[in-house]
Design goal:
The protein contains 4 helices and 9 strands; from the N terminus they run αβαβαβββαββββ. With 181 residues, it is α/β, with parallel strands linked by helices. It has a single domain, classed as Rossmann fold (3-Layer(aba) Sandwich), CATH 3.40.50.2020. The strands form 2 sheets. The protein has a 6-stranded mixed sheet. Strands 1-9-8 form a 3-stranded antiparallel sheet. Helix 4 links the parallel strand 5 and strand 6. The two termini are 17 Å apart.
Length: 181
Amino acid sequence: MDLDNLQKVYDDADCIYSLQDVETALDKLVAPLTQHFAHKNPLVLGVMNGSLATLGYLLPRLNFLLEIDYVHATRYQGALQGNTLVWKRKPEIALAGRHILLVDDLLDQGITLKAIVDHCLGEHALSVSIAVLGTKRIAGYSAPIAADYSALDIPDKYVFGFGMDYHNYWRNAPGIFACKE
């Protein structure tokens, strides 16, 4: 896709959540995350690349001891629809005996997050919790996993912005945008 078409996608998109809406929603996750993890020495795992913006916003607001690492598993690789899961990087910090907080941008079909949770549990993590910027409600579909903490409800449309991409672009869009049908 050329740069002019990528710009047109942004220009034509509907803003469903402004940057202020996103930040306000994420602020509401701080207290429950703090209550749950403050005394558990959690390992926070960002799911790359989508979690970058959400992690960057949340981490300075989590006022308790934690370690951070990341995992990179994807079914999209720049495409608009998921395919076979590809592991690009597993965590380097040992997961055994740890409480894990997975942070991601979006829970839609839940296949990638389920595989990551299964991996963590297979490595003997004590617990795995999921925090996402948004949960997409897909009509007639029940995801194999649910987020424990979700800031926003996302409509069943292709969305981008605040970490979520459109053909590997627009992760930096200031808010969450839905592509025109």
